[in-house]
Write a structure and sequence with these properties.
about 475 residues, mainly alpha, Glutamyl-tRNA Synthetase, domain 2, Arc Repressor Mutant, subunit A, two-stranded parallel sheet, 17 helices, 11 strands, about 45% helix, binds glutamic acid
Length: about 475
């Protein structure tokens, strides 16, 4: 057994943006490494050159960095086990393939691709799973002619392992396929490269999506052929949409950088992702990253698929937003204000943030929640009763005329007016609220009036009163 601290890796293929499932795999690796005082490695698996997208790797790294998932070894970080791009390790794969070739555990295969395709189709037609039959392959030819290198499965070796999440796993060697290690262009397959790299990078725990569960027996045969010690395997169940199907954008799932641009906090997204299929054994749902590092354990990763719920993300983000100090909230809100807030003073914006912090789910909501602090309403919802406005607003204006516009004074005066007019509090306040905000829901009435100030409040009340008189 290894004595050293764990070494784990996140090994994305740079073929697209960083989706929720991938982010969670990266996070679990990072939390485990940080909890154990281990090493977190980032490795790009870019051997499927046709599928590589130019900016994907940069966007994956930006996503991880934004979330604070710093890696100890990898691109942008360096390290003693590099390069950390598989495309820069081709020689190593070739060398390792040759070793097994010499030992007879890898053989050359000149079968034309169309013949293989025909075998695959035949299997499909007969409704049996396709598995290459070594005796039907063209295994003689000249090394100068295009060919692939295949691993010779040992049919008598039934690989088995204790998966940290899924428990005891085993497969009959006779069910396994002689798989390609090097393609005819000399590039490795994922199947071959991941094993060679995990060994050379001294990975102790392979934590990845469970779509690789079924390939792991093949990998175990490869480890055995090389005489290498196997890492621990930790396969994590998928994240599903609420309808139990594979998670997609259709379910509202976004990439990490899109969440950033909508105004989600990195700590909140981490909280959300960590609790997708993991819990600390209590009912606690809100965690800081430091708490997660402290409590994380592989044993509490759940076996059943996690369900993505963007309402829950909003709820968690709201908690994290409310936990911010006002200074921090002001800093984070920069860039999310409505256009019309450009001229407003910092003090005023601080005041506005204090009023909406309680209701804010993500910072992208700021314009819709605060626009009326910066612009006079031009339209009013139909809930504004013009008869009431015509009758009551002159009295409201009169009542607040000499107010110092402190919240307490406004409250006292307006509650006094409710009694004087003998109307329902809610009815009177509704007319005032809609008149000054153009909305039926807004922060507290006196706080809002106080923030807007005497001049703006009275101008807005006047505007509505004039309209009410016009329509009379
Ligand atoms: N490159 C693989 C992927 O992006 C990673 C598999 C692994 O972690 O071994 O899905």
């Amino acid at each position: 057994m290894r004595e050293q601290a764990p070494r784990v890796r996140f090994a994305p293929s740079p073929t697209g943006y960083m989706h929720v499932g991938g982010l969670r795999t990266a996070l679990f690796n990072w939390l485990f490494a940080r909890n154990q005082g281990g090493v977190f490695i980032l490795r790009f698996e870019d051997t499927d050159q046709a599928r590589v997208i130019e900016d994907a790797a940069a966007s994956i790294m930006d996503s991880l960095q934004w979330l604070g998932l710093d890696w100890d070894e990898g691109p942008r970080a360096g390290g003693a086990h590099g390069p950390y791009w598989q495309s820069q390790r081709l020689e190593s794969y070739q060398k390792h393939a040759e070793t097994l070739l010499e030992q007879g555990r890898i053989y050359r295969d000149w079968t034309p691709p169309q013949d293989l395709e025909a075998m695959r189709k035949a299997a499909q037609k007969e409704k049996r799973p396709f598995k290459v039959d070594r005796s039907q392959l063209k295994t003689d030819g000249s090394p100068d002619e295009p060919h692939v290198l295949r691993f010779a499965i040992d049919q008598s070796h039934d690989p088995a392992w204790d998966d940290v999440v899924y428990g005891r796993q085993s497969r009959a060697g006779s069910e396994l396929d002689d798989f390609v290690c090097l393609k005819s262009d000399g590039w490795p397959t994922y199947n071959f490269a991941n094993v060679v790299d995990d060994h050379l990078m001294d990975i102790s725990h392979v934590l990845r999506g469970d779509e690789f569960l079924s390939s792991t027996p093949k990998f175990l045969q490869l480890y055995a052929a090389f005489g290498w010690q196997t890492p621990s395997f930790v396969h994590v169940p998928p994240v599903h949409g609420p309808d139990k199907t594979k998670l997609s954008k259709r379910h509202g799932a976004l990439g990490a950088l899109e969440y950033r641009d909508w105004g989600y906090l990195p700590g909140a997204l981490i909280n959300f992702l960590a609790t997708l299929g993991w819990n600390d054994g209590t009912t606690q749902e809100i965690f800081t990253p430091a708490e997660l590092i402290n409590r994380f354990s592989l044993e509490r990763i759940q076996k059943s698929p996690a369900v993505f719920d963007d309402g829950r993300l909003d709820w968690i983000n709201g908690h994290h937003l409310r936990a911010l100090t006002l200074d921090e909230l002001v800093r984070r809100a920069e860039g999310f204000w409505p256009q019309s807030a450009r001229e407003a003073s910092m003090d005023y914006k601080r005041q506005v943030l204090t009023l909406v912090q309680e209701r804010l789910k993500y910072l992208g909501e700021l314009p819709e929640l605060t626009w009326f602090f910066f612009t006079d309403p031009a339209e009013y919802p139909e809930q504004l009763d013009m008869d009431n406005a015509r009758q009551w607003l002159p009295r409201v204006l009169e009542t607040i005329e000499s107010s110092d516009f402190s919240e307490a004074d406004l409250e006292e005066r307006l509650r006094g007016l409710v009694a004087e007019l003998d109307v329902k509090t809610g009815e009177l306040f509704k007319v005032i609220r809609i008149s000054i905000t153009g909305q039926t829901a807004a922060p507290g009435l006196f706080e809002t009036m106080h923030a807007l100030g005497s001049e703006t409040t009275r101008r807005r009340l006047q505007t509505v009163l004039s309209r009410a008189r016009e329509v009379a």
